[in-house]
Design a protein that fits this description.
alpha+beta; Herpes Virus-1; Apoptosis, Tumor Necrosis Factor Receptor Associated Protein 2, Chain A; about 35% strand; 4-stranded antiparallel sheet; single chain
Length: about 290
């Protein structure tokens, strides 16, 4: 509730007039409106995200975000027709507001002007994770703590899970034809990591192996770790060391840019035994 006080206003006469008696006129003692109060005015009644410029309204002045508007024929508030009329006043107010990220409930504390909101949310570390399984056309999205259960389900619980800073991952039957992939979950330092090894056909008849590690965490958290992949054989060693990818980064991009361990099938044969390849995986904190 707003506190209201009253003050006496006297009329000042110029020339001949009758002075009216004193009237009590309400006066706001606290005229401050918080940023969150202003932001709440832009809440979409359908998805509860924020309505951002350009802002259009229904014939009664109600707002709905552009994403929901594309699926509606009538205003969800008054059931009146949606119009293409711009609400320029609300657009000007929006330019003065710092909006919270749509993933605030997941832990993001950032606020930003409307011109920066879309770009921020596309890169926000608190946005839902996509399916990390290589080569999958899976449309799954979920929280970080749901990634491993999803991966296990995707591979019918055949994913290897190991604990410790140094583990040995065994990729079996690497000589099978076609595109192949292997996934391991490694737990250490109170975190979970995914090792993904994939055998890809670069062009007809030419294949390569690609391997990298992802942290099930944010980019900022990933910067605190280093991973090392090693293939060891008689008088031979092949090693790759790097900062793990965040679960929000696409491993396909790392493979495409060769920002990972890359080796030819003939090299794999130098380290494999009976068609199985052992990879030493070391996770360390930096």
């Amino acid at each position: 509730p707003t506190l209201i006080s009253y003050m006496c206003v006297s009329a000042v006469c110029v020339g001949s007039c009758t002075v009216a008696p004193c009237h009590n006129v309400p006066q706001m003692t606290d005229n401050t409106v918080s940023n969150s109060d202003l932001a709440s005015l832009f809440e979409c009644p359908v998805c509860f995200n924020h309505v951002l410029p350009p802002i259009t309204q229904c014939q009664s002045g109600h707002l709905v975000c552009s994403e929901c508007r594309s699926r509606l024929t009538h205003c969800p508030t008054c059931r009146g027709p949606l119009t293409a009329v711009r609400n320029l006043a609300m657009e000007r107010v929006a330019d003065l507001v710092l909006f919270p990220c749509r993933y605030a409930s997941s832990g993001c504390g950032a606020t930003m002007p409307p011109t920066e909101k879309v770009d921020h949310e596309e890169q926000c570390e608190f946005r839902p994770c996509r399916c990390p399984c290589p080569g999958a056309s899976c449309g799954w999205q979920g929280a970080m703590d749901a990634v491993v259960p999803h991966v296990m389900q995707h591979y019918n619980n055949s994913v290897i899970t190991l604990e410790g800073e140094v583990v040995v991952f065994l990729a079996v039957n690497i000589n099978l034809a076609g595109t192949l992939d292997w996934v391991m979950v490694q737990s250490c330092f109170g975190s979970q990591f995914l090792l993904i090894l994939e055998k890809l056909e670069i062009h007809a008849g030419y294949r390569k192996f690609f391997a990298a590690v992802q942290l099930i965490g944010t980019r900022e958290q990933a910067e605190h770790f280093t991973y090392r992949l090693e293939l060891n054989g008689t008088r031979r060693r092949l090693m790759w060391e790097a900062t793990p990818l965040s679960i929000h980064e696409r491993i396909e991009t790392a493979f495409l840019n060769c920002d990972c361990l890359v080796f030819h099938p003939r090299v794999a044969e130098l380290f494999a035994e009976n068609g199985d390849l052992s990879i030493n995986v070391t996770i360390s904190m930096t």
